[in-house]
Design brief:
This protein is mostly beta strands. It folds into two domains: 164 residues, no CATH class; 151 residues, no CATH class. It has a nine-stranded antiparallel sheet with strand order 4-3-2-1-6-7-8-9-5, covered by helices on one side. An eight-stranded antiparallel sheet has the order 13-12-11-17-18-19-20-16. The N and C termini lie far apart (63 Å).
Length: 330
């Protein structure tokens, strides 16, 4: 979202004389009465940088409609809805389209950084639509942000007071950390390449300080500075850049590298990673011993493919050859 740093010059840039009735609107809500219907909101439509997507409420759960119903954090929904409802007019600004871009309140497009937010209640009844432009943090007395905004379809732009924690991309609405397997709980890691070659590291006992490469070839030595222990961190605090429905995306699964993590309490989680279309994709399977159930973890991961930072894939795709320095000549 664009930030306009030079606030003092805005009046000169958009300086049109306002009518007394517009001046007297200072302190009024941008959307009077919206606060009373927030519980009825069922759909949020966001338009940003040429992308349009919907966040919808299904039962008690907010979801990303275009991501197969992936769960959304209510902690993202509530403050955003309340923030829009509490926006207060401070000062009327331009009503001339030629000046909209200076405030960031022009119609959103691929090459603009502003955002349109639309709110709908049951029966898809629209109750609010605004274009959010430039923001100056803490500009207004009391610590509120100064925000340039325009109600969609209306010519007048406004400087409003409030706070909007805008989620611009679909992934901004979700818990980006989708799995966290603590390294100290990992007993064994087995990484299997598409050609069948393996790398196996394991701890001799729970609480042991280091992992051992179990299939190090005879006469081979590890490269200087190699940290075998880092392989146990492959699924620690793993965060996504994007998420896809598994059965809705084409995957060259035969080219995937498989990393199997086994914990001391019986959890077995398998991560399949694939480099495809300049992205690193991962999908996970879980199982456990009869003494425990992976129901919550399985429900969280089943049916989804996550895009992760390329750098995080290294620990999930390591080859034995990547660790070996040399071997004794015959």
């Amino acid at each position: 979202m664009a930030t306009l740093a030079l606030m003092a010059g805005i009046w000169l840039l958009t300086g049109e004389r306002q009518s007394p009735s517009e001046d007297s609107a200072s302190g009024q809500r941008l959307f009077p009465g919206l606060e009373q219907v927030l519980d009825d909101i069922r759909r949020i439509r966001v338009e940003h940088s040429g992308t349009v997507y919907d966040v919808v409420k299904a039962g008690d759960q907010w979801q990303l409609q275009d991501k197969g119903g992936y769960p959304v954090l209510f902690e993202r929904v509530k403050p955003m809805l309340l923030g829009i409802a509490l926006l207060e007019k401070v000062e009327p600004k331009t009503d001339r389209p030629k000046n909209y871009a200076r405030l960031g309140v022009q119609e959103p497009a691929v090459d603009t950084a502003n955002t349109r937010i639309e709110l709908y209640t049951m029966a898809d009844n629209p109750v609010a639509s605004l274009i959010v432009g430039g923001v100056q943090a803490g500009l207004i007395t009391g610590g509120k942000d100064g925000i340039y905004a325009r109600v969609s379809g209306q010519p007048r732009a406004w400087l409003v007071a409030g706070h909007l924690d805008l989620a611009e991309k679909p992934v901004d609405w979700v818990d980006r950390q989708f799995t966290h397997i603590k390294p100290k709980t990992v007993k064994r890691v087995t990484i299997i390449q598409p050609d069948g070659s393996r790398l196996v590291v394991e701890k001799s006992r729970q609480g042991a300080p280091s992992y051992t490469v179990m299939n190090l070839p005879e006469g081979a030595a590890l490269k200087q500075g190699v940290e075998v222990n880092t392989l146990a961190r492959g699924l620690a605090a793993l965060k996504m850049d994007d998420v896809f429905v598994h059965n809705a995306i084409h995957l060259a699964e035969s080219a995937a590298v498989t990393a199997v993590f086994e914990t001391w309490d019986g959890l077995r989680i398998t991560a399949h990673t694939l480099k495809q279309d300049k992205k690193t994709l991962v999908w996970l399977d879980t199982s456990m011993t009869a003494q425990a159930t992976p129901a919550r973890l399985h429900a969280r991961l089943d049916g989804w493919v996550y895009q992760i930072p390329n750098a995080r894939a290294d620990r999930l795709r390591m080859r034995l050859d990547d660790l070996v320095e040399s071997s004794v000549a015959e």
